[in-house]
Amino acid sequence: MTAVQYGRCLDGVIRREGLRWVHQRGRFVSALVRPLVWLVIFAAGFHFVLGVSIIPPYQTYVPYEVYIAPGLVAMIQLFQGMQSSLSMVYDREMGSMKTLLVSPFPRWFLLTAKLLAGVAVSVVQAYIFLAIAWFWEIAPPASGYLAVLPALVLSGLMLGALGLVLSSFIRQLENFAGVMNFVIFPMFFTSSALYPLWRVKQSSLPLYWVSEVNPFTHATELIRFALYDQFNAVSSLVLAGYLLVFMAVAVLGYDPGRGLMARRAGAE
Amino acid sequence: MLARVEERAVAAAQTEALAVERVSHAFGGRRVLDAVSLTVRPGEFSVLLGLNGAGKTTLFALITRLYHSGAGRIAVFGHDIRRHSSAALARIGVVFQQPTLDLDLTVEQNCFYHASLHGMARRVAAPCIAAELERVGLAARRRDRVRQLSGGQRRRVELARALLHRPSLLLMDEPTVGLDIESRQFLLDHVRLLCREQGLAVLWATHLIDEADADASVVILHRGRILATGPRERVVAQAGGEDLKAAFDRLVHAEAVT
């Protein structure tokens, strides 16, 4: 296989993901409605309950809506990351993971292509959300919209890789509700998406530490800082570290010799 | 010089499209395949007969490298599936038992996706897609969503898609399950034609005995073991039945007694 062929394969996988996203209108709409519900209803309700003091990267007091917007962007990517890989495995309707894996390209490349395709979709979704959020006065500086792009790519890769890991290892999460309960909600609620961590620290120290090591916290913070033209070095390093670990585990999980695929098949 | 070229040509002609040698596989403690050996030659239509749970799907998963076997060797045109998986997979076309088309995409989009997974350029793939869809009688439906097609039509699309990259070995895992008689016959006839015209090697798994016609080779797999293999007439003669159904029953029954 030549480099050109690798490129064609990547192009094909990304096109497919894009087409699926456009064609499945339900998925498209719910991916946008979900964070908007949080922004418009939840944040409005808590507007006067939760005050947010001046913490970096903000230079003034910010309304609660402004505080939770970056976390909602990360939530879009979390859902997308889980959906794009888990739907392949659990959709009995398609079994499309098989179609991908019998391609003559190396498996690590196929998984990476799949991952990049999911990231491409999640980045577009995130920008659509940010565009709508602008009308709710979530208005970071114009340059922030550009600076957030690499942050979205890194966090999207990390969350997508996590989805690949789950799809290769976990048999018990037979449907998406299981993933919601055991992955998405815990990650979202033990992060800095809804409340700053110094507040969490005041109420519970163990929970604070859980939040600190939660990769979703760092996805949120990287996006938050980037939107205001600042670079959060710690979060980007943590995300890169998680990405490497998750990707390595995913490649192992899909290795034909490791028996994980076989074990899954045997259990069916 | 000429002698060497000839030698190579002879060697190529003798190359087995698929060689499975003493392959065993177990899921945990449950043994699903036990020292399975079989070969398929170019142009051969080989019917893998077995009841549900015989191990057919596991064997297909091993041949397509979804996972590796515990023991034995699988080679596709001499390429070991473990060591030279890319070369081996490039020559395989496969239709899985479960449908694997994207229902929300059009017929053509599904085909383009498959072509890209084999590194084909879109402009190269386009005429191949048109030709293969024409052959299965679905050229007019190429811009329709797969969801709008009937079960038989979807299977035909899967077959057309599996042939896009010009494979030399076609694997079909119970392709006719759930199809009406007409669709079933169409698939069988089409694949038999490809065997004759293009020298395509086919391994066709089924539990429907009548899908093995007079010219077919037969491999009988039962509870993970090969009970008989060879041209249909020989298998029938050796088992001592009057037809393949009787031969199959006799072999499976003898196995149950021992």
Key structural traits:
heterodimer; A: 268 residues; mainly alpha; 12 helices; 75% helix; globular; B: 258 residues; alpha/beta; Rossmann fold; 9 helices; 40% helix
Describe the structure.
The complex is a heterodimer of chains A (268) and B (258). Chain A is mostly helical and 268 residues long. Chain A has one domain (3-267). Chain A contains twelve helices and no strands. Chain A has helices spanning 3-23, 25-45, 64-90, 96-101, 107-133, 142-169, 176-189, 197-203, 205-213, 215-227, 233-253, 260-267. Chain A starts with a helix and ends with a helix. Chain B has 258 residues and is an alpha/beta fold. Chain B has a six-stranded mixed β-sheet with strand order 6-7-8-3-9-10, sandwiched between helices. A four-stranded antiparallel β-sheet of chain B has the order 2-1-4-5. The N and C termini of chain B lie far apart (56 Å). The interface between A and B is large, with 40 and 43 residues.
Cα radius of gyration of chain A in angstroms: 19 Å
Q: Identify the CATH architecture of the largest domain in chain B.
A: 3-Layer(aba) Sandwich
Structural class of chain B: alpha/beta
Helix fraction of chain A by DSSP (H/I, runs of at least 4): over 70%
Cα(first) to Cα(last) distance of chain B is 56 Å
By CATH reckoning, the class of the largest domain in chain B would read Alpha Beta
Instruction: State the order of secondary-structure elements of chain B, H for helix, E for strand.
Output: HEEEHEEHEHHHEHEEEHH
Q: What does the radius of gyration of chain B come to? A: 19 Å
Distance between the termini of chain A: 34 Å
Average pLDDT of chain A? 87
- Give the CATH superfamily of the largest domain in chain B: P-loop containing nucleotide triphosphate hydrolases
Main sheet of chain B: which strands, in order across?
6-7-8-3-9-10
